[in-house]
Amino acid sequence: MEFFCYHRDRPGSLPLREELGEAHWAYMDRYEAELIARGPTFADDGETPTGSVHIVDLPDAAAARAFAFDEPNYQAGVYRDVLLRRWRNLLGRTMWEFPGGRTGGDRHLVLGLGPLSGGTAPEVPHECDELIAFGPLLSDDGEAWVGTAALVRAPDAEAARAVLRLGRYAGIEVHAWEFGGRR
Fold it and tell me: In angstroms, rounded to a whole number, what is the distance separating the alpha carbons of residues 15 and 64?
């Protein structure tokens, strides 16, 4: 079962985040084989971390909750909240298999939240060469579509936002993001 996990930083927690850097990395190293994608999000300055994205394949929801809430930064209070949702990997690959590689161009996390139509989850857009990861956010039972999460290489936030159809979501968030991990 695939899960999307987005830990959002608490304001003012950067010193604690930096102090726990190695503990976070060591924790994530334990899940290396299960990770589909990972990496930090950043404020508009492009340098200040604002969160941490992890897309992971785990046996069940209990394992996903343990992954999200046993994480050292979460335990220490770095994060203000956690978005944890079932997810479906529509590209069928990890971020490390992205043909565009780890470097070059700006990368973004795009979240479409609260589908307005209540319809079906989106399919992979036809123009998908710049998609690093893409899939629907799902209810706990995996049946209801509750949003969409994408990692995309795009020249700016507006171009990244265009990967999701406007008018289909109550809100669309775009965050600067970069490849994470030790690889």
Answer: 27
